Every structure is written in structure tokens, then in C-alpha cells.
User: What shape does this take?
Amino acid sequence: MKPRDHNLMTTATVKLWGTPIGYVSMNADEQFARFEYDPDFAQFGIEPAPLKMPVRAGRIYQFQDLHPRSFHGLPGLIADSLPDKYGNRLIDVWLARTGRRAEQFNAVDRLCYTGRRGMGALEFEPAVGTETAKDKLIEIEELISLAAMAFTDRQALDTRFATGNEEQALLDILSVGTSAGGARAKAVIAFNPQTRQVRSGQLDLPSGFEHWLIKFDGVAFNGDWGVADPAGYGLLEYSYYLVAKACGIDMMESRLFSENGRHHFMTRRFDRDANGGKKFIQTFAALTHFDYYESGLYSYEQLFMTMRQLDIAKAGIEEQFRRVVFNLVGCNQDDHVKNFAFTMDRRGGWDVTPAYDLCHAQGSDFTRFHQLSINGKTSGFTLADLKHLARYAGLPNNREKRILEQTVDAFSGWEARAQELGIPQKLQERVLRTLRLSWN
Assistant: This one.
């Protein structure tokens, strides 16, 4: 299944760290792509998809049982690289400008649009789409304005980009806004902490700049599961970052970028090293082919089972357990299968990534309960449930009690942090009503 031209088929080469690992193709009249490993890849002795697509020369993989809403006809290994809600809105703007309909641009086309710009280390050829953005300073305020149009007024956005002098603005937002996953408006940027200057995160880093991801605050209709984020959401996520650090949870350095009364949550990218090198990342969903739209169908027990299958060290197991307890105490009920991820090194060894998307989430139909169950429950957890999960994960006796005590202690100081940060009072009250500080 080598790359070939065919007017009814889209084919892409999939690369990892510059090496072709396989080929993915999709016929125009099919919903499900086919994937085949490159015959030479087996010699490297690593397994990027060990649970669902072990490296086998000559085997063609196709997964017709995966729901298109989550995997879009692709195997999990590469479905993680697709743009999500916000990125797809921006791509649709570009398609309209080039005279193409969105329904004519299939999942493999969108991988080729992502090209080398995706999160993680996978790259796709042939790359199609926009020209490379210029290496210049970018104004956050301008990106937010364009993001707001993408959510609320596509026609206005199309009209704005119809004029020649707005071409560079389109390149800027397409470059930084289409590769980051998730429903919320965000951008991958190069950020200089000393000068607070921002450049495109898709180019070689100038001196003093680092790879960061910024989530935009104050964008109308911005949020997950059809529910707009409340005012102060950037401040809220930052407050949860501070609590997570107090709990001993591993997270990338994060900060606030404030301008014009808005407070954008920023975090250093864990899929890039200090020199800009790419790290291979797979979500829990990608590795297991679990559908993140299926609320309550999967469990934290399955998360730890997957970690055993990946042979993750005891330190990683305990780190993950801390995150579970954080989600329960802090009422982060958006704990679905794409919000846990793992990284594989060049020798094929696996570990947990730093934690991400740790924030209060409760209230929409989707987040009425936790997405992952413990002991068959998605709510009403007890100490006995935590003890059950700790035993399942293989933690030492009573370790869950110490982790719970540390987490409750950290969240007991949340209100003081919220007051100091200036989180809106209504949002504070909403969070305080749902924190789980008492356990029996």
C-alpha cells in the first residue's frame, strides 16, 4: 500500500521522528481508512500502537467498529492527530476560500493538512494546505478576535479573509490554531517569558522562546460539550494548576497571559523538548480504541490495566492515582479517555505524560457524573472505593489515605487562592458547592 495517485483515493505516508512507519489510505466512497506498516519499520523493534495495531509486515488494518464521530474512520494511532472542533472550523474557512466543500475533505486529507504541525511526533505526507506563516510577532488580541468569529460568525470571518490584506492574518491563525486538539479555542505558540512576545509555534524557535499552548479566554461559545465556559475560566484553570502542584502532581509549567481584562491559561507543551524535538504521545483513547463520547462506559480500573500492559513503572502508577484522587476531590468530571495520555521513547519504553486539562467540570449533561467509573460507580465515591482502586493499581497499603489527605488539604486552601486571583464570586460559589472535602 505504497503512496500512489488515484482520483478516488487519498493516501498519506505516516512518519515518526522522520522515519516512514506506515501508510494510510481512504477511498472516496468509504467511511473507514486502511493502514499498513512500512515493511522496514519492524527492524526498529518498537510498538507505537501495541494494544490494537502491533507491527506486522504485510497486514492491513481497518477498524469498522470504531464510531466515526470519535475516530473519523481512522485507527486510534493516527486519529489523535486530527484537528478537533475549533481546528476543523478554521480548516473549513480555508476550504471555502479554496473553493472546496468540507464533505469533500476526508480524514486523510485533514491529516495531510496537519502535515508536520500536529501535536506529538507523527507527521503526514504529502502536506497540503496553507503556506508557512512568517516568523513574526503575533498579537494575542488579534487571534482572539478571529477565534470569536470562527465560533459565532463564519460569514464575517470569510468576508474578512476575502480581502488580500488579511491573507497574513489567515495564515497566522491557521498555523497556530488548527493543530491543537480539544473543543476550546487555543493556539500553539512560541513564547518568550521575559518579553511576553508571541510568535508562531510551528517554526524554529528564536533565542529566548519556548513551546507553549495558550487557551483563549473571553471567546463567545467557547467550551466543551456545547456548554460555554463561564467568565473567569482561565483563572479557574490556573487555580487548579496551583492546587495540582501542591498535591505533588506532575504538570508542565503554566501561567496566565492577561490582556484587556481577559486571562488566558498558558502551559508549556509536553510534546516538545527544550530543543524543540518532538515526543511521541498517545491518549488512553487512542491506545485502547475507547470512544470518549461514551460517558461512564469505561473505568479507572481499565486505565490502570492499560498501564500494566504498557509496563509502566510504579512511580507512574502512583502519579496516575494522584490524578484520579484530584479529579474526585476537585470535581473534575470531564475525566474522559482523551484526558489521559502516555509517551513512548525511542527505545519503545512507555510512561505517563504530565497531567493536563485538570479543571473543575460539572454541570453539562456530559459532566453530570464522572466519565470513568470506580468500582462500578460514576458518583458517590467512598473511601472503600478508593481503597479498592489502590489495591487494583498495586499501591502500598494505606497509600490512598495519604494521597487523599494531601489532596483534601490542598483543596481546602482553594478559596483563598480564588480570592487572590479574582475569580468571579458566582464561579467560586459553584466550585465550593461541589468540592468533595469530606470522605467516609
Q: What stands out?
A: The first strand starts at residue 9 and ends at 16. The chain is about 35% helix and 15% strand. Confidence is low (pLDDT under 50) at residues 2-6. Residues 280-434 form one domain.
